Amino acid sequence: MPGIDWARLGAIGGEGLEDFVATCLRQLYPDARQTRPASGDGGIDVYRDTPDGLVVWQIKKFTTAVGSGQKKQIKTSWRRFWVANVVPDRHIASYTLATPWTPTASKLAWFENDVTADAMFKTTWEGAAFFNMLASRFPATFDRFFKGPDLLDNMVLTKATLAASPVETAGNLTMLDAINFREQSLRDIKDLISDNYQIDTSTFRLPPGQGPTVAHMRERLNGHSRWSRIDDTRWQVETVVPTSDQSAEVEPITINMRFLVEPGTPEADAIAEWDRWGVPIQDIPAESQIVGGPFDEQEPTTGILSVGAPPPSADLPRLLLRAQSINGSSIPPPADVVFIVRETTSGRLGGGLRVIASTRSGALTLEARIRSEVADPSFGLRLTVESGQDPAQVARDLHRVEAIASYGPFECVIEDGPSLAAGTDLAAPPFAKAIAEIANDLARLQPHTTHRLRMPDVWETTEHQTEELHRLATIYDEGAITQTWERIFLMIEDPSFLQNMEIFNGVGALVKKSEPVFSLGGANYMITHPLVVSILTPVLAEWVDRAQVEEGAEIELVPATDNRVVHAALAKDPAQHIAG
To answer: Are 403 and 334 in contact (CB under 8 A)?
Structure first.
Protein backbone atom coordinates (compact mmCIF):
# COMPACT_ATOMS: atom_id res chain seq x y z
CA MET A 1 0.00 0.00 0.00
CA PRO A 2 2.48 2.69 -1.21
CA GLY A 3 2.09 6.41 -0.71
CA ILE A 4 0.88 6.27 2.91
CA ASP A 5 1.63 9.50 4.77
CA TRP A 6 2.64 8.03 8.12
CA ALA A 7 3.49 11.47 9.48
CA ARG A 8 -0.10 12.61 8.98
CA LEU A 9 -1.46 9.41 10.47
CA GLY A 10 0.90 9.80 13.42
CA ALA A 11 -0.62 13.20 14.08
CA ILE A 12 -3.96 11.45 14.65
CA GLY A 13 -2.37 9.64 17.58
CA GLY A 14 0.97 7.90 17.93
CA GLU A 15 -0.46 5.19 20.14
CA GLY A 16 -2.64 4.21 17.17
CA LEU A 17 0.48 3.57 15.09
CA GLU A 18 2.00 1.38 17.76
CA ASP A 19 -1.21 -0.60 18.33
CA PHE A 20 -1.65 -0.98 14.55
CA VAL A 21 1.78 -2.62 14.18
CA ALA A 22 1.24 -4.81 17.28
CA THR A 23 -2.17 -5.94 15.99
CA CYS A 24 -0.77 -6.78 12.55
CA LEU A 25 2.12 -8.74 14.07
CA ARG A 26 -0.30 -10.79 16.18
CA GLN A 27 -2.22 -11.62 13.00
CA LEU A 28 0.97 -12.38 11.07
CA TYR A 29 2.28 -14.61 13.87
CA PRO A 30 -0.57 -16.23 15.88
CA ASP A 31 1.85 -17.03 18.73
CA ALA A 32 2.97 -13.39 19.07
CA ARG A 33 2.19 -11.65 22.36
CA GLN A 34 1.65 -7.94 22.92
CA THR A 35 2.87 -6.46 26.22
CA ARG A 36 1.17 -3.74 28.20
CA PRO A 37 3.20 -0.84 29.65
CA ALA A 38 1.12 -0.94 32.81
CA SER A 39 2.57 -4.38 33.61
CA GLY A 40 6.15 -3.40 32.74
CA ASP A 41 7.09 -4.24 29.18
CA GLY A 42 10.82 -4.72 29.81
CA GLY A 43 11.66 -2.81 26.61
CA ILE A 44 9.40 -5.09 24.55
CA ASP A 45 6.18 -4.26 22.73
CA VAL A 46 5.61 -7.58 20.89
CA TYR A 47 7.46 -10.86 21.26
CA ARG A 48 7.46 -14.51 20.21
CA ASP A 49 8.89 -17.48 22.08
CA THR A 50 10.39 -19.64 19.32
CA PRO A 51 12.64 -22.73 19.34
CA ASP A 52 15.50 -20.41 18.25
CA GLY A 53 14.92 -17.99 21.12
CA LEU A 54 12.99 -14.81 21.89
CA VAL A 55 11.94 -12.71 18.86
CA VAL A 56 11.35 -9.11 19.94
CA TRP A 57 9.81 -5.97 18.39
CA GLN A 58 10.07 -2.54 19.98
CA ILE A 59 7.68 -0.11 18.26
CA LYS A 60 8.16 3.66 18.33
CA LYS A 61 5.74 6.23 16.88
CA PHE A 62 8.46 8.42 15.34
CA THR A 63 7.18 9.74 12.00
CA THR A 64 9.86 12.42 11.49
CA ALA A 65 13.65 12.47 11.63
CA VAL A 66 15.00 11.06 14.90
CA GLY A 67 16.48 13.76 17.11
CA SER A 68 18.19 13.74 20.49
CA GLY A 69 14.94 13.20 22.41
CA GLN A 70 13.91 10.22 20.25
CA LYS A 71 17.43 8.77 20.44
CA LYS A 72 17.21 8.91 24.21
CA GLN A 73 13.92 6.96 24.13
CA ILE A 74 15.46 4.32 21.87
CA LYS A 75 18.44 3.91 24.19
CA THR A 76 16.21 3.77 27.27
CA SER A 77 14.06 1.02 25.73
CA TRP A 78 17.16 -0.92 24.74
CA ARG A 79 18.61 -0.71 28.26
CA ARG A 80 15.33 -1.93 29.78
CA PHE A 81 15.28 -4.81 27.31
CA TRP A 82 18.93 -5.65 28.06
CA VAL A 83 18.50 -5.67 31.84
CA ALA A 84 15.20 -7.58 31.79
CA ASN A 85 16.15 -10.21 29.21
CA VAL A 86 19.81 -10.32 28.11
CA VAL A 87 21.48 -10.02 31.51
CA PRO A 88 19.46 -12.98 32.93
CA ASP A 89 20.98 -14.93 30.02
CA ARG A 90 17.72 -15.46 28.25
CA HIS A 91 18.30 -16.76 24.72
CA ILE A 92 17.48 -14.03 22.20
CA ALA A 93 16.93 -14.76 18.48
CA SER A 94 16.40 -11.20 17.20
CA TYR A 95 15.54 -7.63 18.21
CA THR A 96 13.71 -5.28 15.85
CA LEU A 97 13.13 -1.55 16.30
CA ALA A 98 10.17 -0.47 14.16
CA THR A 99 9.38 3.17 13.33
CA PRO A 100 7.27 4.65 10.52
CA TRP A 101 10.27 6.91 9.74
CA THR A 102 12.95 5.15 7.71
CA PRO A 103 16.40 5.62 9.30
CA THR A 104 19.16 7.30 7.32
CA ALA A 105 22.54 5.62 6.92
CA SER A 106 24.02 7.68 9.77
CA LYS A 107 21.15 6.90 12.15
CA LEU A 108 21.35 3.22 11.24
CA ALA A 109 25.10 3.24 11.96
CA TRP A 110 24.41 4.92 15.31
CA PHE A 111 21.84 2.19 16.15
CA GLU A 112 24.22 -0.62 15.23
CA ASN A 113 27.46 0.81 16.66
CA ASP A 114 26.31 2.83 19.65
CA VAL A 115 23.04 1.25 20.84
CA THR A 116 23.16 -2.47 20.00
CA ALA A 117 26.89 -3.05 19.52
CA ASP A 118 27.11 -5.52 22.42
CA ALA A 119 24.35 -7.75 21.07
CA MET A 120 25.36 -11.29 20.06
CA PHE A 121 22.07 -11.72 18.19
CA LYS A 122 20.47 -10.15 15.13
CA THR A 123 19.30 -6.52 15.49
CA THR A 124 17.29 -4.61 12.89
CA TRP A 125 15.74 -1.17 12.47
CA GLU A 126 12.66 -1.36 10.23
CA GLY A 127 11.18 1.81 8.72
CA ALA A 128 8.28 2.90 6.50
CA ALA A 129 8.63 -0.11 4.19
CA PHE A 130 7.86 -2.40 7.13
CA PHE A 131 4.77 -0.35 8.03
CA ASN A 132 3.68 -0.32 4.37
CA MET A 133 4.05 -4.11 4.19
CA LEU A 134 1.80 -4.58 7.20
CA ALA A 135 -0.77 -2.13 5.80
CA SER A 136 -0.77 -4.01 2.49
CA ARG A 137 -0.97 -7.41 4.18
CA PHE A 138 -3.78 -6.41 6.54
CA PRO A 139 -5.85 -3.71 4.78
CA ALA A 140 -8.87 -4.27 7.02
CA THR A 141 -6.79 -3.55 10.12
CA PHE A 142 -5.33 -0.44 8.45
CA ASP A 143 -8.83 0.79 7.59
CA ARG A 144 -10.06 0.23 11.13
CA PHE A 145 -7.22 2.25 12.65
CA PHE A 146 -6.94 5.10 10.18
CA LYS A 147 -10.04 5.66 8.05
CA GLY A 148 -11.94 7.49 10.73
CA PRO A 149 -15.63 7.52 11.79
CA ASP A 150 -17.01 7.15 8.25
CA LEU A 151 -15.61 3.64 7.94
CA LEU A 152 -18.73 1.84 9.22
CA ASP A 153 -21.03 3.79 6.89
CA ASN A 154 -18.78 2.98 3.93
CA MET A 155 -18.70 -0.68 4.95
CA VAL A 156 -22.50 -0.93 5.11
CA LEU A 157 -22.82 0.84 1.76
CA THR A 158 -20.32 -1.53 0.16
CA LYS A 159 -22.07 -4.55 1.62
CA ALA A 160 -25.47 -3.35 0.42
CA THR A 161 -24.09 -2.77 -3.05
CA LEU A 162 -22.60 -6.25 -3.22
CA ALA A 163 -25.73 -7.88 -1.86
CA ALA A 164 -27.88 -6.11 -4.45
CA SER A 165 -25.59 -6.93 -7.37
CA PRO A 166 -26.75 -9.79 -9.60
CA VAL A 167 -24.49 -12.81 -9.84
CA GLU A 168 -23.62 -13.26 -13.52
CA THR A 169 -21.10 -15.23 -15.54
CA ALA A 170 -18.68 -13.52 -17.88
CA GLY A 171 -16.24 -15.19 -20.26
CA ASN A 172 -14.48 -18.02 -18.46
CA LEU A 173 -15.91 -16.98 -15.08
CA THR A 174 -18.40 -19.63 -13.94
CA MET A 175 -21.47 -18.90 -11.84
CA LEU A 176 -19.74 -20.53 -8.85
CA ASP A 177 -16.62 -18.39 -9.38
CA ALA A 178 -18.78 -15.26 -9.52
CA ILE A 179 -20.53 -16.23 -6.26
CA ASN A 180 -17.23 -17.00 -4.56
CA PHE A 181 -15.80 -13.65 -5.70
CA ARG A 182 -18.72 -11.79 -4.14
CA GLU A 183 -18.53 -13.83 -0.95
CA GLN A 184 -14.82 -13.09 -0.70
CA SER A 185 -15.59 -9.38 -0.97
CA LEU A 186 -18.12 -9.73 1.83
CA ARG A 187 -15.57 -11.63 3.93
CA ASP A 188 -13.10 -8.78 3.43
CA ILE A 189 -15.71 -6.39 4.78
CA LYS A 190 -16.38 -8.64 7.77
CA ASP A 191 -12.68 -8.48 8.60
CA LEU A 192 -13.19 -4.76 9.33
CA ILE A 193 -15.37 -5.63 12.33
CA SER A 194 -12.54 -6.68 14.65
CA ASP A 195 -8.75 -6.75 14.83
CA ASN A 196 -8.76 -9.79 17.10
CA TYR A 197 -11.40 -12.03 15.58
CA GLN A 198 -12.63 -13.09 12.17
CA ILE A 199 -16.05 -14.54 11.35
CA ASP A 200 -16.42 -17.82 9.50
CA THR A 201 -19.82 -18.27 7.84
CA SER A 202 -21.44 -21.49 6.69
CA THR A 203 -24.88 -22.98 6.05
CA PHE A 204 -26.37 -25.86 8.01
CA ARG A 205 -29.51 -27.84 7.22
CA LEU A 206 -31.96 -29.23 9.76
CA PRO A 207 -35.31 -31.05 9.34
CA PRO A 208 -38.21 -28.67 8.55
CA GLY A 209 -39.24 -26.62 11.54
CA GLN A 210 -36.45 -27.93 13.77
CA GLY A 211 -34.09 -25.54 15.52
CA PRO A 212 -30.46 -26.13 16.48
CA THR A 213 -29.66 -27.79 19.79
CA VAL A 214 -26.51 -27.71 21.89
CA ALA A 215 -25.58 -31.07 20.35
CA HIS A 216 -25.88 -29.63 16.82
CA MET A 217 -23.67 -26.70 17.74
CA ARG A 218 -21.03 -28.88 19.39
CA GLU A 219 -20.87 -31.29 16.43
CA ARG A 220 -20.87 -28.57 13.80
CA LEU A 221 -18.47 -25.91 15.04
CA ASN A 222 -16.11 -25.08 17.86
CA GLY A 223 -16.14 -21.56 19.22
CA HIS A 224 -18.63 -18.80 19.85
CA SER A 225 -21.30 -19.01 17.14
CA ARG A 226 -24.56 -17.36 16.16
CA TRP A 227 -27.28 -19.24 14.28
CA SER A 228 -29.79 -17.37 12.10
CA ARG A 229 -32.72 -18.98 10.29
CA ILE A 230 -32.67 -18.56 6.50
CA ASP A 231 -35.78 -20.58 5.70
CA ASP A 232 -37.63 -23.66 7.01
CA THR A 233 -34.60 -25.96 6.70
CA ARG A 234 -31.49 -23.76 6.33
CA TRP A 235 -29.57 -21.93 9.03
CA GLN A 236 -26.68 -19.51 8.68
CA VAL A 237 -23.90 -20.17 11.19
CA GLU A 238 -21.48 -17.35 12.02
CA THR A 239 -18.54 -18.46 14.17
CA VAL A 240 -16.07 -16.16 15.88
CA VAL A 241 -12.51 -17.38 15.33
CA PRO A 242 -9.56 -15.76 17.19
CA THR A 243 -6.87 -14.37 14.86
CA SER A 244 -4.08 -14.89 17.40
CA ASP A 245 -3.30 -16.68 20.65
CA GLN A 246 -3.70 -13.38 22.50
CA SER A 247 -7.07 -12.38 21.04
CA ALA A 248 -9.14 -13.43 24.05
CA GLU A 249 -6.73 -11.62 26.39
CA VAL A 250 -6.72 -8.38 24.38
CA GLU A 251 -10.46 -8.45 23.67
CA PRO A 252 -12.24 -10.87 26.01
CA ILE A 253 -15.74 -12.09 25.15
CA THR A 254 -18.11 -12.55 28.07
CA ILE A 255 -21.80 -13.37 28.35
CA ASN A 256 -23.83 -11.75 31.11
CA MET A 257 -26.89 -13.84 32.00
CA ARG A 258 -29.98 -13.41 34.15
CA PHE A 259 -32.38 -16.35 34.31
CA LEU A 260 -36.09 -15.54 34.16
CA VAL A 261 -37.56 -18.42 36.19
CA GLU A 262 -39.80 -18.75 39.21
CA PRO A 263 -38.44 -20.35 42.41
CA GLY A 264 -39.54 -23.95 42.93
CA THR A 265 -40.06 -24.70 39.24
CA PRO A 266 -38.24 -27.47 37.32
CA GLU A 267 -36.34 -24.74 35.49
CA ALA A 268 -35.13 -23.28 38.80
CA ASP A 269 -34.02 -26.76 39.91
CA ALA A 270 -32.11 -27.22 36.64
CA ILE A 271 -30.32 -23.90 37.19
CA ALA A 272 -29.40 -24.96 40.73
CA GLU A 273 -27.86 -28.16 39.33
CA TRP A 274 -25.95 -26.10 36.78
CA ASP A 275 -24.72 -23.74 39.51
CA ARG A 276 -23.51 -26.57 41.76
CA TRP A 277 -22.25 -29.13 39.23
CA GLY A 278 -22.30 -27.59 35.75
CA VAL A 279 -25.09 -29.94 34.60
CA PRO A 280 -26.07 -28.80 31.06
CA ILE A 281 -29.31 -26.85 30.83
CA GLN A 282 -31.72 -26.71 27.91
CA ASP A 283 -34.26 -24.08 26.85
CA ILE A 284 -34.27 -21.90 29.99
CA PRO A 285 -35.88 -18.41 29.68
CA ALA A 286 -33.14 -15.87 30.25
CA GLU A 287 -31.86 -12.40 29.55
CA SER A 288 -28.34 -12.33 28.12
CA GLN A 289 -25.86 -9.83 26.76
CA ILE A 290 -22.67 -10.55 24.83
CA VAL A 291 -19.89 -8.15 25.76
CA GLY A 292 -16.81 -7.93 23.54
CA GLY A 293 -15.98 -9.42 20.18
CA PRO A 294 -17.81 -9.05 16.86
CA PHE A 295 -21.21 -9.94 18.39
CA ASP A 296 -20.98 -7.27 21.11
CA GLU A 297 -24.48 -6.21 22.21
CA GLN A 298 -25.30 -2.77 23.56
CA GLU A 299 -28.44 -4.00 25.33
CA PRO A 300 -29.50 -7.36 26.83
CA THR A 301 -31.78 -9.61 24.79
CA THR A 302 -34.45 -11.99 26.06
CA GLY A 303 -34.78 -15.53 24.76
CA ILE A 304 -34.29 -19.23 25.46
CA LEU A 305 -30.85 -20.19 26.75
CA SER A 306 -29.11 -23.56 26.63
CA VAL A 307 -25.69 -24.36 28.07
CA GLY A 308 -23.90 -27.55 27.04
CA ALA A 309 -20.85 -29.34 28.37
CA PRO A 310 -17.45 -28.93 26.75
CA PRO A 311 -16.03 -32.04 25.09
CA PRO A 312 -13.63 -33.86 27.43
CA SER A 313 -9.93 -33.90 26.77
CA ALA A 314 -8.76 -36.90 24.76
CA ASP A 315 -6.03 -37.73 27.27
CA LEU A 316 -8.24 -38.12 30.35
CA PRO A 317 -7.52 -41.35 32.26
CA ARG A 318 -10.07 -44.14 32.42
CA LEU A 319 -12.15 -44.93 35.52
CA LEU A 320 -12.23 -48.41 37.01
CA LEU A 321 -15.09 -49.89 39.04
CA ARG A 322 -13.50 -52.66 41.07
CA ALA A 323 -14.07 -54.95 44.01
CA GLN A 324 -11.85 -54.30 47.00
CA SER A 325 -9.82 -57.26 48.16
CA ILE A 326 -11.08 -58.75 51.41
CA ASN A 327 -8.32 -59.59 53.87
CA GLY A 328 -8.10 -63.31 54.48
CA SER A 329 -10.56 -64.19 51.73
CA SER A 330 -9.62 -67.09 49.46
CA ILE A 331 -11.99 -65.85 46.78
CA PRO A 332 -10.23 -63.61 44.24
CA PRO A 333 -12.03 -60.36 43.41
CA PRO A 334 -13.84 -60.23 40.05
CA ALA A 335 -12.51 -58.34 37.05
CA ASP A 336 -12.74 -54.54 36.86
CA VAL A 337 -15.35 -52.70 34.82
CA VAL A 338 -13.60 -50.08 32.67
CA PHE A 339 -15.26 -46.73 32.05
CA ILE A 340 -14.25 -44.06 29.53
CA VAL A 341 -14.86 -40.42 30.54
CA ARG A 342 -17.44 -38.87 28.21
CA GLU A 343 -18.17 -35.57 29.97
CA THR A 344 -16.75 -33.42 32.74
CA THR A 345 -18.33 -30.25 34.14
CA SER A 346 -17.57 -27.94 37.04
CA GLY A 347 -19.97 -26.04 39.23
CA ARG A 348 -20.07 -22.26 39.09
CA LEU A 349 -20.50 -22.28 42.87
CA GLY A 350 -18.50 -24.41 45.27
CA GLY A 351 -16.02 -25.84 42.78
CA GLY A 352 -17.85 -29.17 42.41
CA LEU A 353 -16.65 -31.64 39.76
CA ARG A 354 -19.09 -33.86 37.88
CA VAL A 355 -17.76 -36.78 35.82
CA ILE A 356 -19.85 -38.84 33.39
CA ALA A 357 -18.25 -42.05 32.12
CA SER A 358 -19.54 -45.11 30.30
CA THR A 359 -18.27 -48.52 29.36
CA ARG A 360 -16.99 -49.07 25.83
CA SER A 361 -20.18 -51.01 25.07
CA GLY A 362 -22.28 -48.09 26.31
CA ALA A 363 -24.32 -50.44 28.50
CA LEU A 364 -23.38 -48.80 31.82
CA THR A 365 -22.92 -45.16 32.73
CA LEU A 366 -21.64 -43.84 36.03
CA GLU A 367 -21.89 -40.33 37.38
CA ALA A 368 -19.61 -39.13 40.14
CA ARG A 369 -20.06 -35.78 41.88
CA ILE A 370 -17.20 -34.76 44.16
CA ARG A 371 -15.21 -31.89 45.71
CA SER A 372 -18.08 -29.43 46.10
CA GLU A 373 -18.09 -26.98 48.99
CA VAL A 374 -21.85 -26.42 48.76
CA ALA A 375 -23.29 -29.87 47.90
CA ASP A 376 -22.87 -33.46 49.06
CA PRO A 377 -20.87 -35.91 46.93
CA SER A 378 -22.68 -38.75 45.15
CA PHE A 379 -21.99 -41.77 42.98
CA GLY A 380 -24.54 -43.40 40.69
CA LEU A 381 -24.55 -46.29 38.23
CA ARG A 382 -27.30 -46.74 35.64
CA LEU A 383 -28.18 -48.88 32.65
CA THR A 384 -27.84 -47.20 29.26
CA VAL A 385 -28.42 -50.18 26.98
CA GLU A 386 -29.56 -49.06 23.54
CA SER A 387 -30.35 -50.83 20.29
CA GLY A 388 -27.32 -51.44 18.11
CA GLN A 389 -24.79 -52.16 20.87
CA ASP A 390 -22.52 -55.22 20.74
CA PRO A 391 -24.21 -58.03 22.75
CA ALA A 392 -20.92 -59.68 23.78
CA GLN A 393 -19.58 -56.43 25.23
CA VAL A 394 -22.91 -55.63 26.92
CA ALA A 395 -23.05 -59.11 28.51
CA ARG A 396 -19.44 -58.81 29.71
CA ASP A 397 -20.01 -55.42 31.36
CA LEU A 398 -23.28 -56.43 33.05
CA HIS A 399 -21.91 -59.74 34.32
CA ARG A 400 -18.87 -57.97 35.77
CA VAL A 401 -20.84 -55.32 37.62
CA GLU A 402 -23.15 -58.03 38.99
CA ALA A 403 -20.11 -59.97 40.19
CA ILE A 404 -18.67 -56.87 41.89
CA ALA A 405 -22.04 -56.17 43.56
CA SER A 406 -22.15 -59.75 44.87
CA TYR A 407 -18.55 -59.63 46.10
CA GLY A 408 -19.08 -56.83 48.64
CA PRO A 409 -16.82 -53.80 49.12
CA PHE A 410 -16.10 -51.79 45.99
CA GLU A 411 -14.46 -48.58 44.84
CA CYS A 412 -14.31 -46.38 41.76
CA VAL A 413 -10.76 -45.27 41.03
CA ILE A 414 -8.94 -43.21 38.45
CA GLU A 415 -6.68 -45.54 36.51
CA ASP A 416 -3.21 -45.27 38.10
CA GLY A 417 -4.66 -42.61 40.38
CA PRO A 418 -6.75 -41.97 43.51
CA SER A 419 -10.18 -43.29 44.46
CA LEU A 420 -13.29 -41.27 43.63
CA ALA A 421 -15.82 -43.29 45.62
CA ALA A 422 -16.02 -46.40 47.78
CA GLY A 423 -18.70 -48.42 49.54
CA THR A 424 -19.98 -51.81 50.59
CA ASP A 425 -23.44 -52.04 49.03
CA LEU A 426 -23.13 -51.63 45.28
CA ALA A 427 -26.52 -52.36 43.74
CA ALA A 428 -26.62 -53.59 40.16
CA PRO A 429 -29.06 -51.43 38.16
CA PRO A 430 -32.65 -52.78 37.92
CA PHE A 431 -33.24 -55.25 35.05
CA ALA A 432 -29.49 -55.66 34.57
CA LYS A 433 -29.73 -59.44 35.00
CA ALA A 434 -32.57 -59.82 32.48
CA ILE A 435 -30.81 -57.61 29.92
CA ALA A 436 -27.56 -59.49 30.45
CA GLU A 437 -29.37 -62.74 29.57
CA ILE A 438 -30.62 -61.23 26.30
CA ALA A 439 -27.12 -60.01 25.45
CA ASN A 440 -25.55 -63.33 26.40
CA ASP A 441 -28.00 -65.33 24.26
CA LEU A 442 -27.38 -63.10 21.24
CA ALA A 443 -23.64 -63.48 21.74
CA ARG A 444 -24.07 -67.28 21.86
CA LEU A 445 -25.96 -67.22 18.55
CA GLN A 446 -23.46 -64.97 16.74
CA PRO A 447 -21.13 -67.81 15.59
CA HIS A 448 -24.10 -69.50 13.89
CA THR A 449 -25.13 -66.72 11.52
CA THR A 450 -23.52 -64.57 8.88
CA HIS A 451 -25.63 -61.62 10.04
CA ARG A 452 -24.20 -59.18 12.55
CA LEU A 453 -26.36 -59.47 15.67
CA ARG A 454 -26.88 -56.30 17.70
CA MET A 455 -28.85 -55.42 20.82
CA PRO A 456 -32.57 -54.71 20.30
CA ASP A 457 -34.72 -52.12 22.05
CA VAL A 458 -34.69 -54.09 25.28
CA TRP A 459 -37.51 -52.04 26.81
CA GLU A 460 -39.86 -53.17 24.01
CA THR A 461 -38.82 -56.83 24.14
CA THR A 462 -41.53 -59.19 25.40
CA GLU A 463 -41.16 -62.20 27.68
CA HIS A 464 -42.27 -64.53 24.88
CA GLN A 465 -39.55 -63.13 22.62
CA THR A 466 -36.81 -63.63 25.20
CA GLU A 467 -37.98 -67.20 25.80
CA GLU A 468 -37.73 -68.00 22.09
CA LEU A 469 -34.28 -66.37 21.95
CA HIS A 470 -33.09 -68.44 24.90
CA ARG A 471 -34.46 -71.63 23.35
CA LEU A 472 -32.53 -71.03 20.12
CA ALA A 473 -29.35 -70.06 21.96
CA THR A 474 -29.56 -73.28 24.00
CA ILE A 475 -30.02 -75.42 20.87
CA TYR A 476 -27.12 -73.87 18.95
CA ASP A 477 -24.73 -73.44 21.86
CA GLU A 478 -25.46 -76.47 24.06
CA GLY A 479 -26.98 -79.05 21.73
CA ALA A 480 -30.36 -80.54 20.80
CA ILE A 481 -33.43 -80.16 22.97
CA THR A 482 -36.30 -82.64 23.05
CA GLN A 483 -40.04 -82.19 23.48
CA THR A 484 -43.00 -84.56 23.07
CA TRP A 485 -45.91 -84.51 20.68
CA GLU A 486 -49.43 -86.01 20.58
CA ARG A 487 -50.93 -85.10 17.22
CA ILE A 488 -50.23 -83.03 14.12
CA PHE A 489 -52.60 -81.95 11.36
CA LEU A 490 -51.23 -81.52 7.82
CA MET A 491 -52.78 -79.98 4.70
CA ILE A 492 -52.20 -82.32 1.69
CA GLU A 493 -51.49 -80.69 -1.66
CA ASP A 494 -50.55 -83.87 -3.56
CA PRO A 495 -52.49 -86.93 -2.32
CA SER A 496 -50.55 -89.30 -4.63
CA PHE A 497 -47.52 -89.41 -2.36
CA LEU A 498 -49.66 -91.13 0.31
CA GLN A 499 -49.81 -94.18 -1.93
CA ASN A 500 -46.27 -94.96 -0.74
CA MET A 501 -46.96 -97.20 2.24
CA GLU A 502 -43.56 -96.44 3.78
CA ILE A 503 -44.68 -92.88 4.44
CA PHE A 504 -46.28 -92.20 7.81
CA ASN A 505 -46.07 -95.84 8.83
CA GLY A 506 -44.64 -95.25 12.31
CA VAL A 507 -40.98 -95.61 11.27
CA GLY A 508 -38.41 -92.84 10.87
CA ALA A 509 -39.18 -89.15 11.30
CA LEU A 510 -40.90 -86.15 9.72
CA VAL A 511 -38.03 -83.65 9.20
CA LYS A 512 -38.23 -79.90 8.63
CA LYS A 513 -35.11 -77.78 7.92
CA SER A 514 -35.19 -73.97 8.15
CA GLU A 515 -33.17 -70.87 8.90
CA PRO A 516 -34.82 -69.59 12.07
CA VAL A 517 -36.18 -66.04 12.14
CA PHE A 518 -37.11 -64.44 15.46
CA SER A 519 -38.02 -60.98 16.75
CA LEU A 520 -36.83 -58.89 19.69
CA GLY A 521 -38.35 -55.53 20.51
CA GLY A 522 -39.44 -54.84 16.91
CA ALA A 523 -36.17 -56.01 15.30
CA ASN A 524 -35.97 -59.20 13.25
CA TYR A 525 -33.04 -61.61 13.37
CA MET A 526 -32.05 -64.58 11.17
CA ILE A 527 -29.82 -67.54 11.96
CA THR A 528 -28.24 -68.71 8.72
CA HIS A 529 -27.01 -72.04 10.11
CA PRO A 530 -30.08 -74.29 9.48
CA LEU A 531 -32.21 -75.68 12.29
CA VAL A 532 -33.61 -79.19 11.91
CA VAL A 533 -36.86 -80.25 13.63
CA SER A 534 -37.44 -84.04 13.66
CA ILE A 535 -40.87 -85.44 14.63
CA LEU A 536 -40.23 -89.12 15.43
CA THR A 537 -42.33 -92.17 14.40
CA PRO A 538 -45.30 -90.39 12.79
CA VAL A 539 -48.21 -92.61 11.76
CA LEU A 540 -51.62 -91.84 10.22
CA ALA A 541 -54.46 -91.66 12.68
CA GLU A 542 -56.85 -94.59 12.50
CA TRP A 543 -59.62 -92.56 10.87
CA VAL A 544 -57.44 -91.49 7.92
CA ASP A 545 -57.96 -93.62 4.74
CA ARG A 546 -54.97 -93.10 2.41
CA ALA A 547 -57.03 -93.98 -0.64
CA GLN A 548 -59.71 -91.41 0.13
CA VAL A 549 -57.53 -88.36 0.81
CA GLU A 550 -58.14 -85.59 -1.74
CA GLU A 551 -56.18 -82.45 -2.65
CA GLY A 552 -56.53 -79.80 0.05
CA ALA A 553 -57.73 -82.31 2.65
CA GLU A 554 -56.36 -82.28 6.19
CA ILE A 555 -54.88 -85.43 7.75
CA GLU A 556 -53.94 -86.26 11.32
CA LEU A 557 -50.63 -87.77 12.44
CA VAL A 558 -50.02 -89.42 15.81
CA PRO A 559 -46.86 -90.97 17.32
CA ALA A 560 -46.32 -94.68 17.07
CA THR A 561 -43.60 -95.91 19.44
CA ASP A 562 -41.59 -92.70 20.02
CA ASN A 563 -43.35 -89.38 20.68
CA ARG A 564 -40.27 -87.14 20.76
CA VAL A 565 -39.68 -83.90 18.80
CA VAL A 566 -35.93 -83.16 18.46
CA HIS A 567 -34.72 -79.59 17.73
CA ALA A 568 -31.08 -79.51 16.63
CA ALA A 569 -28.67 -77.48 14.55
CA LEU A 570 -27.80 -79.08 11.24
CA ALA A 571 -24.48 -80.89 11.54
CA LYS A 572 -21.78 -78.75 9.98
CA ASP A 573 -19.67 -79.92 7.09
CA PRO A 574 -16.07 -79.84 8.38
CA ALA A 575 -15.07 -77.94 5.24
CA GLN A 576 -17.81 -75.36 5.69
CA HIS A 577 -17.04 -72.12 7.55
CA ILE A 578 -19.80 -70.19 9.27
CA ALA A 579 -18.76 -66.53 9.68
CA GLY A 580 -18.96 -65.18 13.20
So the answer is: yes
